TrEMBL record:
Family: Belongs to the phosphohexose mutase family.
InterPro entries assigned to the protein according to its UniProt record, in alphabetical order: A-D-PHexomutase_a/b/a-I, A-D-PHexomutase_a/b/a-I/II/III, A-D-PHexomutase_a/b/a-II, A-D-PHexomutase_a/b/a-III, A-D-PHexomutase_C, A-D-PHexomutase_C_sf, A-D-PHexomutase_CS, Alpha-D-phosphohexomutase_SF
The enzyme's E.C. designation: 5.4.2.2
Pathway: Lipid metabolism; Glycolipid metabolism; diglucosyl-diacylglycerol biosynthesis
Enzyme class label: isomerase
SUPFAM superfamilies referenced in this protein's UniProt entry, alphabetically: Phosphoglucomutase, C-terminal domain, Phosphoglucomutase, first 3 domains
Domain Alpha-D-phosphohexomutase C-terminal: 502-560
The name this protein goes by in its record: Phosphoglucomutase
Metal-binding recorded as keyword: yes
Domain of life: Bacteria
Keyword entries, A-Z: Carbohydrate metabolism, Glucose metabolism, Isomerase, Magnesium, Metal-binding, Phosphoprotein
Source organism per UniProt: Lacticaseibacillus baoqingensis
Length: 575
């Protein structure tokens, strides 16, 4: 059906909730709004789904949430009884409709006699991942739109290992989701029926305590915290999200006594009233933390996004607070882990670090210096989780650290997704390490540049909103494939890595296979070691462009970065 027919079907649906009826009436005279909401169903992929809250098949609402859960339930109906009855852990963040969506998911699962274990209040995404492993459920559902604006919400599915559902299972679930054509008459149970039949269990402090005990193992040098960390001044903001209670708890448990919350941002507010975007990679997210930091002369400012899987920081740089990039934070964390374990004599001979293919090569240089393997995987933390699982099964490596440039880090694998709570307590310890040397974290990253070379990276996202956004994104990727650039800013391309065709093509035409899953990503390697990558976002209507380069000085690295960014923009926009 066309969008007009889909829209009219919703208008005529007698069971539609009153709030959605009002929204439908409001868009009655807007063909554009109707088309965006009803032209095509919401994309459901390996990362689940994410979109604007509202009426329509391309919106987050109770009906699309029921549809997604019905797909998961039908898939679980095909499993052995023991796996099916292991159930599903469910958590949610502070966004509008998050709790409602979580309980709707439980209601659909219950109709299939699948038990659910639902948190009694908002919790971080990493704790949901932990809960799947701790409770030994078959799957997990996290209701969150991560760092997106307030209009959004989302739905993520996790597998038995606590990582995002593997591609094979995810593809099957997607098929079942698409097979649910009547989204208004999906069977559900009431909360009373769920509880009476023991199909819904509320979880809370029992899982919290186990998670906090696990996070306590992240700390490496307890004496350092006792002597330096306990007096260090920290500012923390959860940006109106789920991190407030767990971050305070793990900092206090580790021995950090002098930390302050940004009070106005400690409120779990779905409006995210004090920030334009609840995203710790944006400078505006730190405005209030910087004001408080200046008043208290804080050593480091830490922010986590609403579902507390991403972490950003601003550090004192002599006369102002300087935001660090996700690559810089990861490099500081990695170097500290390897150095501390080397000094303690616990650095394994088969250690491995895992990063995405669009993350900094500074980390590769650090790992090489310490005799540790660096493994590159495709973008998406599930691929880091897959490597961890492989190491556990084969014993080939010991996982030491994993990260993505997009402000996501994992220190200990009792969680299988990026974990800003773990990262908060370790970053505080790293800050104490440099403070013990009369250095700041800013001094620390400069020291790494002096030792390994000045690395510079930049990510630029180009939005493609509207109903034809996906087609425009696909057309852009096709343009790069059909008109392959041979140079950027006068520097020749020596290899093109196409993860869609799984081939790496050298300048002379020689091809070698890429042993990674199929993904719509292009990466160009240049003669000077610079790399440029292009990929459509898996969670937002945008194409991301990445540039990574290095030089002997900061100024030279920044100059190269600007030149490559300009060349990339010129190629992208030319007719």
């Amino acid at each position: 059906m066309g969008y007009q027919q889909n829209y009219q079907q919703w208008v005529n649906e007698p069971s539609l909730t009153p709030d959605l009826q009002v929204e439908l009436q409001a868009m009655a005279d807007s063909a554009t709004e109707q088309e965006e909401a009803f032209a095509a169903p919401m994309a459901f992929g390996t990362a689940g789904m994410r979109g604007v809250i509202g009426a329509g098949i391309n919106r987050m609402n109770i009906y699309t949430v029921r549809q997604a859960t019905e797909g998961l339930a039908r898939f679980m109906d095909t499993l052995p009884e023991a796996q099916k009855h292991a159930g599903v852990a469910i958590a949610y963040d502070s966004r509008y409709m998050s709790q409602e969506f979580a309980h709707e998911a439980a209601a659909v699962l219950g109709a299939h006699a699948i038990p659910s274990f639902v948190f009694d209040a908002l919790r971080p995404t990493p704790e949901l991942s932990f809960a799947v492993r701790y409770l030994k459920t078959y799957a997990g559902i996290m209701i969150t739109a991560s760092h997106n604006p307030k209009q959004y919400n989302g739905y993520k599915i996790y597998g038995p290992d606590g990582g995002q559902m593997p591609p094979e299972e995810s593809d099957r679930i997607t098929e079942y989701v698409r097979g649910v054509t009547d989204i208004f008459h999906i069977e559900t149970l009431t909360t009373r029926e769920l509880r009476d039949q023991n199909l819904m269990t509320l979880i809370g402090e029992d899982v919290d305590e186990a998670y906090y005990q696990a996070v306590a193992t992240v700390t490496i040098d307890h004496d350092l915290i006792k002597t330096v960390g306990k007096d260090m001044s920290l500012i923390y903001t959860p940006l109106h999200g789920t991190g407030r209670i767990p971050a305070q708890m793990v900092l206090r448990n580790a021995g950090f006594e002098h930390f302050q919350l940004v009070a106005k941002q400690a409120v779990a507010d779905p409006e995210f009233a004090t920030v334009p975007f609840p995203n710790p990679e944006f400078a505006q997210a730190f405005d209030m933390a910087i004001d408080l930091g200046k008043q208290s002369h804080a050593d480091v400012l830490i922010a986590t996004d609403p579902d507390a899987d991403r972490l950003g920081t601003a550090v004192w740089a002599g006369d102002h607070y300087q935001l660090l990039t996700g690559n810089q934070i990861a490099s500081l964390l990695l170097h500290y882990i390897l150095e501390a374990r080397k000094q303690a004599g616990t650095l394994p001979a088969n250690g491995a670090v895992v990063k995405s293919i669009v993350s900094t090569e500074l980390a590769t240089a650090i790992a090489k210096d310490y005799g540790v393997a660096m493994i590159d995987v495709e973008t998406g933390f599930k691929f880091i989780g897959d490597q961890i699982k492989q190491y556990e099964e084969t014993g080939s490596h010991e996982f030491l650290f994993g990260f993505e440039e997009s402000y996501g880090y994992l220190i200990k694998p009792f969680v299988r997704d990026k974990d800003a709570i773990q990262s908060t307590v370790l970053l505080a310890e790293v800050a104490a390490y440099y403070k013990s040397k009369n250095m700041t974290l800013w001094d620390g990253i400069q020291a790494l540049y002096t030792r390994y070379g000045h690395f510079a990276e930049k990510t630029v996202g180009v939005d493609f909103e509207g109903v034809d956004g996906q087609q425009q994104m696909a057309a852009l990727m096709t343009k790069f494939r059909e008109h392959q650039p041979t140079e950027f800013a006068g520097v020749a391309v020596v290899q093109v890595q196409d993860y869609k065709t799984q081939t790496a093509t050298a300048a002379d035409g020689t091809q070698t296979p890429i042993a990674m899953p199929v993904s719509d990503v292009l990466k160009y390697v240049l003669t000077d070691g610079t790399w440029i990558a292009i990929r459509p976002s898996g969670t937002e209507p945008k194409v991301k462009f990445y540039v990574g380069t290095s030089a002997d000085s900061e100024a030279a690295a920044d100059e190269k970065l600007a030149a490559f960014e300009a060349a990339l923009h010129a190629f992208r926009t030319e007719a």
